[in-house]
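Case study 2.
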Amino acid sequence: MRSEPPTSDARPELVLFDVGGTLVLIDPERFNAFTAGWDLAAVPPDQLVDAHFQAMSDYSYRLADGERLGFRWWVEHFFALAGLALPSGLVDAFRGGRGMWNRPIPGARETVLDLRERGYRVAVVSNSDGTVDEALDIAGFGNLFELVIDSTDVGVSKPDPAIFDRALDELGVSPGSTWHVGDSHYHDVGGARAAGLAAAVLIDPLGLGPLGQLSVRSIVELSELLA
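Prediction:
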């Protein structure tokens, strides 16, 4: 665990979670079944995980440097890091696919349950395509969260602080009583800071985040961080 002190020493009332890369990852069986249709070789699960976090880190740094990149860039970079070619049409087909991001990260559900049992309120704020509720249900997180906000449904995405403001308004919680947990130091950490949240925790298993950033290698370390 690498960390800096949160902006507030007070116990948060609410913990907001990102979904992809935080609670769930791409399902390797579904992913490899998809790429097999394009005559591509299967990718080992560990390589897919590393490719996700490396691509997200690279994407975040480049966005923070002012580059105007869309999510298509992340997809193309993710495939390259996974060692896969990009036949014409594959990126659009992948982006339009459903049901791939539903493999629960080991220990994630137990961590959310532990926080609930210890009195924390928990909710989701996710940049997604309108399917985050479905993904959470498939992954076993159904009914665990007090509120689930999908950026496609509300028309605003992280790092815009408005998506955090909406969650806080609906839940009646102040920014100073809220932490956010996510895997993008541009979208999640940057958005949480812009919204004035007490702390933002980066999921950073490869140790690629900015120096001094409050971070954990895995979500299972979150319970210890909040102890």
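The longest strand covers residues 121-126.
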